[in-house]
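Co-fold these.
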Amino acid sequence: MEMFIFITFAFVAVLSATQSTTTTVTLLPDDKENSKIIVLNESGSQVVDEQGYAVIVTSDVDSPTPPEQVDLQKIKLQHAALFAIQPQKPEKFLLYFESNGVVLLNGSQLLVPTIIEAAKARKAPIINIIGHSDAAGSTEYNLKLSTERANAVAKLLQFENIKEAEYRIDSHGESDPLIKSDKQVEPKNRRVEVEIW
Amino acid sequence: MVLRVFSYLIFTFSFICFSAVAEPAYIGTIKALQGKVSIQLGSTIVDAQLNDKVYEGYLIDTEDNSSIGLVFIDGTQLSIGPSSQVIINRYLFSPKKKQYSFDVMIQNGSAIYSSGKLGELSPESIKVQTPEATIGVRGTKFLVEVD
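Predicted complex below.
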């Protein structure tokens, strides 16, 4: 694999020497907080942490320009086809469980029909089901528990006839907590994430 | 000596069998498509189809008036505009083993990257390259133009 990457790099170097392109990187508005990118090459680097600011790099031996504000409306018009092709954002749901098992809390039980509706509203939906646990108990136990939780939710949804649905069932054990705390028992981490794409 | 040759043969044979059987895992899905987009993996070139799976090593080539939207298994989105070439060098998302990698080369054209779970769990593993620069990500959405 390392070798492959190395060859790719060499290939790139040749192409850029003959084709000579310019790279422009624009930080776009997003719902995520603290958006930040770093644009770098051999000659220097620039951090962009304000939305609607862009960095230009004219070659791999010229350092990136300092970020400058750009007209986002104009960019959206220039790249209308690209902005239009962005995949629909997923609908995300969180289901919570009683401790040490696969029993859904009442509130989460009530959410299941909403999830099914959301999946049925999309064409060939991807249904991403990711099981989690809190940190009480051994890592192995928690991985097993989070897998059982994901499977239990998958069973509930697969019982419905959702057309052309693709199920992806995964579990992260205790390694991907929603609440990052030192406490081992954390009900908010005993969850299954469902994403409908 | 004979034994050694024999065990070597067994090793080679099982290695070949394994390589032939093991299918690479898919890393994403084509969730939006417009016009004609070709996908090259090794010496094979096919036309992209909606809802097709995406694999590591793909070279994606969009024609004029054509574009494509990918969703990776961690929820990272990569949308590629017209007349663009993008190579998916490496993608690895394995929270259980805490192994992550996202290495994409935008050779030419335009693309929008929007981060997913990989960006939350391991932003330092993300690398979006162009012929002129490398873009490091800290959980975000940005536009790249190479022309």
